[in-house]
Amino acid sequence: MTTTLKQPGPDLILYGGSFDPPHQGHRQAVESVSSLFPEAKFVIIPGRYPAVAGNKLKRPRLSFEERVKMCKLAFDTERLKSKVSVSLVEATLPLPNYTLNTVKEFKKNFPDKRFALLIGSDQFRVFHRWFKPLELLKESALIVVKRENDTKTITEFIHTAHEVLEGFIPSKTYSYTLENVEDSTFPLTRLYFNQDLFPIYLVDISICRASSTDIRNMIQDSKSVPDSWVSQDILEYIKDNGLYSNE
Length: 247
Hints:
two-stranded antiparallel ribbon, Rossmann fold, about 20% strand
């Protein structure tokens, strides 16, 4: 039996990152969340020069154009192609590519849509160090998925959420409650704020532990990349274009 959420789910789910390269973990995250929010559309947003925790600038190994091409390949599957698009918006925004600016740009262009950001649990742990996290939660919901090597139980996951929130939400100003949502696919917990903040969804599923950094290093060192980490079309594209190689 499925429990109806107190508020409607998102219409547009934004998934940003370096995607240097995109891997199966990225695809699995979208597939899993799509099962929870079947009416939502997804926008993949490669960052030109993404801002990371602490407001530092990340410089991807490949060009923006190469990463966009690979994202289009990675999400062009029978299951996802009608639900997923790849956006070039961060090529037009001021640097660094702060997530808050990207979300505001989308809300300006789609004012009638409800938004959510899709992030991994590793990013959520440092969310309090993002650029203006409180303002970001006033603009968009968060959907957090665990990686395969994240062994925390959902109870520990929720405890981590409390610690993260205490890092930037004034406790005397904002309060929140937990709502367990029974779903036929994956366990879902929702942090429901009682004020003007959008909710945080904690999805209790472990996605592939693939790491873009590890994949780049393996290719550079002429080592085999696990089949479960990168799709064949992405590997062929990398090989055909001599990407991530020292040669």
